[in-house]
Design goal:
The protein is of the alpha/beta class and 429 residues long. The chain has 14 helices and 24 strands. The chain has a 4-stranded mixed β-sheet with strand order 22-23-1-24, covered by helices on one side. Helix 4 packs parallel to helix 6 and helix 8 packs parallel to helix 12. Bound molecules: ligand EPZ.
């Protein structure tokens, strides 16, 4: 088991390269099941969620070949099963995309309920409603989702709530359905558009991705393709916040600035300077942070996956800031960890009130989930003294080579091996 050790106080300066988008990759990999062919995927991030998804496909018979660290070829011709067991699906939320992809390939899917970050209840009723509107019967039995259809028929699908996962799953099931599917109140995140572009490269007919109405004309077959995944909006935003929080000056490269507009705007509101270039942004942190209010919303609003990271700046901003979590029921678990570092935060349901304090101080904290872990790193970077972060396996799920990237920017951060009993290997005595 490992933990992170951070000696705080260093400014981040220099350049960092952003990897491919995790939430696009974990949708595109299962989408390859929709063709009995070979797909070549480039700019794929080297993170554990992606490795886990590749292993699931391999367990189903697919052949996954690494061309290099960021390029894979997936041959789904040999896939011979529509069943995905619990031991494969429990590690990541996105495993439920296999339902839509397997329905599209076999008109049948039997997938164990997914795992993923714990933000309170994470229902899948909108996914099931979508599958049923396309003509499938879907039910949860013995912890597995069973979905079956004689054939899938295009339909109007109105999403009661904006849902990234349900929008993606309905798209996957609809691309080979008979006739037209119209998804209304669809999610508009960059990874929705990326998946639609990938499916269209496979021969699908999807229009309107990135708006709240997506039209899908079913086609009979899809074929393999070569596709490069977009840069990760949330990884980029995380480094933007880290640069600002440490009063640093960092050029974040290989980004799509339009995807970062809400994050740039919030950082500028707090006093940072953000300069946009074609495929990079430069972030310079202020000496003192202004307070601000934050409300997370579906895209193009401020991303919920950036809420913990941005909140670290508010712990030391001048004055009182309000954070309102507009997507998840319980995404403030990380507050207890920040409080251990001296933050002054009151949580009441989906609202948190931050009273700025002069500084955070280092101590031992844990990563409760992926983005909470990222927030703990940023807190450790700005805290006085040493911060140790446990449960960093969550962070490894979504940030490629983050220790190396941060060290290259001047952070004093390293991994430390610890045994199950808490002792450290090759420790003296
Ligand atoms: C995706 O989760 C992301 N995960 C999450 O990122 C992200 O926080 C979330 O979208 C919102 O942007 C992946 O892409 C793998 P939702 P997802 O369906 O699809 C409710 C990260 O850090 N809802 O958009 O599970 C739900 O409870 C992760 O990378 C229903 O009510 O999120 C929530 O309140 C963490 N019924 C809201 O909709 C449903 O059937 C949005 O959830 C589905 C969702």
């Amino acid at each position: 088991m490992e933990k992170l050790v951070i000696h705080g106080g260093n400014r981040l300066t220099g350049e960092v390269e952003i990897s491919g988008a995790k939430n696009a990759a974990v949708a595109i990999i299962p989408a390859t099941l929709l063709a009995q062919d070979v797909c070549r995927i480039e700019n794929i991030p080297n993170i554990s969620d992606v490795i886990c998804m590749e292993r699931i496909l391999t367990s189903m018979g697919a052949v996954v070949r690494y061309i290099n660290k960021h390029t894979i070829e997936i041959d789904t011709k040999p896939v011979n099963s529509y069943i995905v067991p619990h031991e494969m699906t429990k590690k990541l939320r996105a495993s439920y995309y296999l339902i839509g992809a397997l329905l599209g390939r076999y008109n049948r899917a039997k997938v164990s309920l997914p795992g993923g970050c714990d933000f309170g209840v994470r229902p899948i009723d909108l996914h099931i409603k979508g599958f049923e509107l396309l003509g499938a019967t879907a039910a949860v039995e013995n912890g597995m989702i069973h979905a079956y259809a004689e054939h899938l028929t295009g339909s109007a699908v109105y999403m009661d709530k904006v849902s990234v996962g349900a929008t993606i799953n309905v798209m996957l099931a609809a691309v080979k359905a008979r006739g037209l599917t119209i998804i209304e109140n669809a999610a508009k995140e960059p990874h929705i558009v990326d998946l639609a572009n990938f499916l269209n490269a496979m021969g699908a007919d999807i229009r309107g991705a990135g708006t709240d109405v997506i039209k899908i004309h079913g086609v009979s077959t899809l074929h393999g393709c070569t596709y490069s995944i977009i840069p990760d909006q949330i990884e980029a935003g995380t480094y933007m916040v880290a640069a600002a929080a440490t009063h640093g000056d960092v050029l974040i490269k290989n980004v799509i600035p339009k995807h970062l507009e809400s994050i740039s705007a919030k950082l500028i509101e707090c006093g940072a300077t953000v300069t946009e270039y074609d495929d990079s942004v430069r972030v310079q942190g202020p000496r003192v942070f202004r307070r601000c209010n934050l409300k997370t919303m579906p895209h193009p609003g401020f991303p919920t996956d950036m809420q913990p990271q941005m909140s670290v700046i508010l712990t030391v901003a001048n004055g009182t800031s309000l954070v309102s979590e507009g997507v998840w029921d319980n995404r403030f678990r990380y507050v207890a960890q920040l409080t251990r570092m001296g933050a002054n935060i009151q949580v009441d349901g989906k609202i948190a009130v931050f009273q700025g304090v002069p500084e955070l101080t280092g101590t031992t904290v844990r990563a409760d989930d992926l983005r909470a872990g990222a927030a703990m790193i940023i807190a450790g970077l700005i805290a006085r003294g040493t911060t140790e972060i446990e449960s960093i396996i969550f962070i490894d799920r979504g940030y490629e080579d983050y220790v190396e990237k941060l060290r290259d920017l001047g952070a004093d951060i390293y991994r430390k091996e610890i045994r199950e009993d808490g002792t450290q290997p090759n420790a003296a005595g």
